[in-house]
Task: structure prediction
Amino acid sequence: MALALDEARKAAARGEVPVGAVILSPSGDLLAQAGNEVLARKDPTAHAEMLVIRAAAAMIGSERLNGCDLYVTLEPCAMCAQAISLARIRRLYYGADDQKSGGVRHGGRIFSQQSCHHKPDIYSGFAEREARDLLRGFFRDRRDTG
Amino acid sequence: MALALDEARKAAARGEVPVGAVILSPSGDLLAQAGNEVLARKDPTAHAEMLVIRAAAAMIGSERLNGCDLYVTLEPCAMCAQAISLARIRRLYYGADDQKSGGVRHGGRIFSQQSCHHKPDIYSGFAEREARDLLRGFFRDRRDTG
Result:
């Protein structure tokens, strides 16, 4: 989670919403790390989770990341939660809850739907204060509406 | 929707789940068209809707597709529905309902959540029979588990 927090801080420094993510292989090797790049890539889907899923899938040469674990500083939105399901991520570790835009414990509650065909093990509250403080600081300071 | 159906047929011919999508600009010009490419790209996020959103955003140089309309042959899943919201798509036209994996009228019902910050106008039932027949034929015939 320390690496994911580093990515969140780097995203904030670029003017992006400060969220960072990491994917580890089944044996614990680092496959991918990224922060949000929505503005830099001019891509509304470029959330940290999507970037690490796509990078890790490219790295292992499969659309399924069986046995891989994803760490992210904030509760994933519905887009990212569904992508985590589609990618067959084994364990999801996230930092702070996101009451406004989260899709795991809030909103669409993706993994709680009958139509969810793969649900990872979910652990939350890691480095929660740091992740939340990063977000709060960002939204307090930002001038950009991105 | 005819163009989206063509993309769905091409996806089926490649062995992909037969879903196709198109994005039109506010003035009705074609910005992007794609079929599912999950297997070809080895990317679990490469649904037709995601590909056209990313391509259209790259084309117009903005992470927001204000005023653009998206046509897709099947009810979007939760990932694609949330991406449609994030991209600020104006109108969503889709063909057949997807009771198994849909995220608009089924599952996470993304656009019905309080946490959904942008909801497109939604129209469904276009070329419904053709879109559904393509899917049914594909799942009847396929040997691949992709």
User: Anything to note?
Assistant: Chain B touches chain A at residues 38-39, 41-46, 50, 53-54, 57-58, 61-65, 77-83, 86-88, 99-103, 106-110, 113-117, 146 (CB under 8 Å). Chain B has a mean pLDDT of 94. Chain B has one domain: 1-133. Strands of chain B lie at 20-24, 30-35, 69-74, 91-96, 121-124.
